[in-house]
Every structure is written in structure tokens, then in C-alpha cells.
Amino acid sequence: MKKPVVRIHIIEDDIIVAKDVARSLTVAGYRITAITHDFESSVKRFKTKIPDLLICDINLGPGKTGIDVVRELRKIKKD
Predict the structure, then answer these.
(1) Nearest Cα to 5, choosing from 32, 24, 36?
(2) Residue 17: which H helix or E strand, with range?
(3) CA quadruple 17, 18, 22, 23: dihedral, nearest 10
(4) Which residue, among 54, 53, 21, 56, has the nearest Cα to 37 in the 3D structure?
(5) Crossing angle, helix 66-78 and helix 39-48, to 10 degrees?
(6) pTM (two decimals)
(7) pLDDT digits (tens, 9 = 90+) for 14-69
């Protein structure tokens, strides 16, 4: 029986770190559904495709933090 593929959304403002994490996870057999870099793009993408797992940086540069993003995404998930 084929095991299900876990879909992962990465939220990271440093593109090099995001790509490295994505590459490592892909090699390990996971599917990256999105890489986003800030609050707005993360929320917009999450609304279109809810992943199985979210990996989120806390410091996303100036403005809202990764904690703010996760709080907003939890509201969306509950709906």
C-alpha cells in the first residue's frame, strides 16, 4: 500500500533558507505546496490550499510575525 504524501507549506522570509528547507523535505519524500514570505501572501495561499503541515519562521521581517500568521491561519482552519 502506498503511503500518503504529506503536503507542507513553508513560511520563511529568507529565500535561501526556504529553498534549502524545501529541498531537504522534498528529498525526504514530502510535497511542498507553497513557500511564502510574509503575512499577506501566506494567508492568501493558505485559503486556496490548506496543507497537512505548516513550517513557519517567527521573524518575518518588519510588520507581522510568524505568530500573527499562525493565529490568522488557525481562524481560517476553524471555518
Answers:
(1) 32
(2) helix 15-27
(3) -40
(4) 56
(5) 20
(6) 0.89
(7) 999 999 999 999 999 999 999 999 999 999 999 998 899 999 999 998 889 999 99
Q: How confident is the model at residue 77 (pLDDT cuts 50, 70, 90)?
A: confident
Angle CA(21)–CA(26)–CA(39) in degrees, nearest 5? 45
CA dist., res. 36 & res. 69, Å (int): 11
What are 56's three cell numbers?
513557519
Contact predicate 52/6, CB 8 Å: yes
